[in-house]
Structure formats: structure tokens, C-alpha cells
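Hi W., the flavin-adenine dinucleotide complex you wanted:
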Amino acid sequence: MNRSRPLNLKFNPAPLATMRRAAGRDGRYQPVSFWQETIDVVPGEPLSADLECDVAIVGGGFTGLSVACELKRAANDLHVVLIERDVIGHGASGRNGGFAMPLIGWDLTHAVRTLGQQAAQRAYRLMYDAVDHLKRTVDEEQIDCDLEATGYLLLATCAAREKRLRHEAELGEQLGFGYRWLEGDALSEHIRSQAFRGGVFDPRPLIINPAKLARGLKRVAESLGVEIYEQTSLTELRDETPLLLRTEHATLRANTAVLALNGYGAAMGFMPNRIMPVHTYIVLTEPLTDEQLDEIGWSAHRTSLETARNFIHYFRLTADNRILFGGEDAQLYWHEACHDADRSIFARLEARFRQYFPSLDRVAISHRWGGVLGVTLDMFPTFGCGGQHGNVFHATAYCGHGVALSNYAGRLLAPHVLRHLGRADEAGSNDLPFFYDRQPPWLPPDPLRWIGLQAYRKSLQWLDRWQGA
Ligand SMILES: Cc1cc2nc3c(=O)[nH]c(=O)nc-3n(C[C@H](O)[C@H](O)[C@H](O)COP(=O)(O)OP(=O)(O)OC[C@H]3O[C@@H](n4cnc5c(N)ncnc54)[C@H](O)[C@@H]3O)c2cc1C
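Structure:
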């Protein structure tokens, strides 16, 4: 971001027009994901009167909640206001696969190649800290979100990927992350399918029910004194002193703002030439019986799984033993439109699920959903600040791996917000991660962007098919 240039943003509702709003006509909550069906939500009141505050946070997903909580923990007298267009956890944070993992970039091998060994090692350590931080938060705040320490197994489905994953396992072990290569009987203890040749096991990742986590964090934020307004859309941000944030019914004046919009940032015109709104989709089965799980070897350990392809598949068990199966494609739509569903991807996902687990051909799919997330061309996130006074902060573009990092965003960003507010005493020390204040690679405008990215997507799909992955 350019710090000295004014940062004025205007909301364009058109890309979000087909997405389901949180509150239906009767005012009741309309869930999109299975996870959102497991929580009890009454949409909260919107901001209806003008307000002044120290920090205005825009977006009520993990990022916004994490920053809000860390600010209040460090300086309880700060007036922190969070506005959310729908309800807390209605975006990616209440729809994701629930894998809290250390992945940054494509994988460790890619991170080492791109950043160099030392920087990649530092980045991965930070990501493991983020995973541990999430576990600590859930324990300390007693958030009931079905957290399970399942570990995570990255599976090879073809010879080319097996070779790469064997290298990934060696690298992960050598850099001290405890990775192990599993094949044969050792693999069958975690999962049995003809499709999988072997995999890299990382014991530390966790799984959660993300909507329960988001609602639990809302409770924590409110108990710390964060003022939350749901059903409140930012319509305009003007880079004045203090900042002016317009919403449908009222305005907010704030000394600093934090944009916590991730994939929704495009509709706000935020970093339009650096971040793309990309979609990923999920299908979910009905609950499996113990016999069905035994048959595919998914009972002794409840390991979370992912296939190593350009277009990955991620799959895990829910607390009631459904299989959540996501991925297969990552779609960017014309004019950056955002969607909750894509029938063609659901059909391909289901077909792939049946291919991996033919013995489960009678197990029905009960839920299908998706959501939007922010992606950069180099697959690394971006944190930082912009605006003419450097007081508009952001944490975004987790590239599909934001569960752990967005929940750590407050730890990374809050010290900088506090320093800007002249609250250096509370700020503490904070090493800047490599992705702070960086410019992700440039993206051309449409139609060149759309054409280029569709061609890139097709070439990655072709490569997956050619490798037999
Ligand atoms: C289907 C799916 C599966 C995924 N699976 C995984 C996974 O297993 N592991 C993983 O690590 N990551 C996964 N991700 C990514 C992960 O969910 C995100 O990185 C993370 O939730 C980002 O949180 P956030 O708070 O930054 O964004 P979000 O949760 O998207 O929050 C942004 C919020 O901003 C609100 N908003 C938008 N516009 C406005 C406005 N104008 N005014 C006010 N509020 C606004 C939105 O309503 C939304 O609630 C997945 C994402 C999806 C969609």
C-alpha cells in the first residue's frame, strides 16, 4: 500500500448481489453452510446513530474479531467499534473447512524456493505459533467449537506428486517441523483408498467448527467491551481527519480503521490490482456409521486430509462423523462476482469423492456451499497500512489458508495500530512478518485479468490431469 496517498473507498454492491444475506425477510438468520446451521443466531442491530471511536473495524470474520480482541486486551479504555455487513461469521469464517494449519504459499518447498530457507523457516514458525495461539484462545476462553488435534496428511495421488511430497517430508523434518512420510501400512492406519500412494504427515494442525468459533469470539469481544453492529455495511470510506466511514444509516468517525474484509475487499475497491476474489466449494455427506468409517480406515485416527494437486481436495470428519469434502477447483467469476454456490463444481466434487471412496457410493450428500476468499498471485497474504496518514490498516489475502493466520491477525496488527494511536506503552514488541507492508504482484485490469486467469486456471487443471493427480 502507498502510505502517503489518500485511501478513499466506495462499496459496489453488484458483485455481492447473488450472495445470500444473513437475515431473511422475516428477520431470521439464513445459514449458508452446515456449520452455520449448528449455531443459534439472532441478527444483531445495525448502527443507527452517528458515532466517534478510536478504532473502526470493518468485517466480522476471524480477522476483525481477532484485531478487536487484541486491541481491547492491550488497552481496555480504547473505544473499538466493529461493523459487519451481515452477521458475525457469515463470510468465509463461518463457511470454511475448519482446518487450522501452518500452510503459507503453495507448500513448504515453494516457500523455501521463493523466500529462501531462513525466511521460510521463520514464516512457518509464525504459522505454527498461529495454530498454537488458536488452541490457547479456545482453551482459555472456553469456546465450544469442536476443536480436535487431528494432525494433517498431505496425500500424493500420482508419481510426480509423490516425488515432490517425499522431498517436502524430508525438508519439513530437516527444518524441525516434525513431518513424516507415510506409505503402505502406516498410511492405511490413517486412510485407505486406491487413489492415495503416500503422504506427508504433520502432527500439529487442528480442526474446528468455524461458525461456532466465530460466535464464541463474538462473545469474547463483547465481554472485552468491543461494540459490535451487525447488518451494517460500510458504503464509503473517506480519508479525512478523523476518518469518515459511511454506513447505510449512520456515519462513524475514527482515528484509525482496520479493513478485515478478505475476499469481500474487491467489492470495496480495496487493492483491486493485487487481490482477487476467488471461490472454493464444499460438499458434505450425511453422518457415516462406524462400519463405513472402518472400511476406509478413517476411525483409529481422525486425521485431516488434503491431496497435493494444483487444485487440491481437502477433507475431514465433522463431530457427528460426516465427511466434509472441498476443493477441486478455485473459481474467479466475470467482473469479480461472488457466489455461495456453483452447481458444476458441486457435481465435479461429488464425482471425485465417489472416485476416492467407491465403497461409500450410497452415502448421500446433505449439504453444498461455498464462499469467497482473497488470493494474491504469489499465494502469500498481505498485512499493513495505507492512507495519507498511514491509519487504515489491513490483514487480508490468506489465499485459502487463513483459519490460523486470521485468528492471529490481532497479535500481528494490534501493536502497529496502538503505536499509531500513540499508545506505544501498550504496543509491545512485534517483529514484522515478511508479508507486512508488501505489494503483492500486480494484476492487469479486466478483461485481460479474467482471460489471463482463466487460461492460467485451465493450464493448472490440464497439468493435474496430465500428471494423473
Ligand atoms: C469454502 C471455504 C473453505 C475454506 N477452508 C479453509 C480451511 O479449511 N482452512 C483455512 O485455513 N482457510 C480456509 N478458508 C479461508 C478462511 O476461511 C479465510 O481465510 C478466513 O476465514 C478469513 O477471515 P476474514 O475475517 O479475513 O474474512 P471473512 O470471514 O470473509 O470476513 C469478512 C467479513 O466482512 C464482511 N463484509 C463484507 N463487506 C462488508 C462491508 N462493506 N461492510 C461491512 N462488512 C463487510 C463480510 O460479511 C464478512 O463477514 C476457506 C474459505 C472458504 C470460503
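The longest helix spans residues 117-140.

W.
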